[in-house]
Design a protein that fits this description.
The chain is an all-alpha fold. It is built from three helices and no strands. It is globular, with a radius of gyration of 15 Å.
């Protein structure tokens, strides 16, 4: 899987979890995947006490993950462009 390989190259095998439990979220992402290839990834916001769930009134975004998230998207775009130009 392309996206997870890019993440593994960037953060190492200990830096990713490719075996997350399935989640019953109400996203419409599956409809987008019917039109274009893709994947749904979480960037490690975590589930700490105090309400880290996305739709909680106590939600507190983990600002410490911003740099890793940005690095990942840059690496993903570069890898996609390199692969597409071959």
């Amino acid at each position: 899987m392309f996206a997870s390989e890019v993440a593994q190259d960037l953060f190492g095998t200990d830096g990713i979890n490719g075996n997350c439990a399935a989640q019953m979220a109400s996203e419409d992402f599956a409809f987008m995947l019917q039109e274009r290839p893709g994947c749904y990834m979480l960037i490690g916001n975590g589930s700490r006490q105090g309400g880290c769930l996305l739709h909680s009134s106590d939600y507190d975004f983990n600002d410490a993950i911003l740099e890793n998230g940005a690095q990942y998207w840059v690496a993903l775009a570069k890898a996609w462009l390199a692969r597409s130009s071959v």
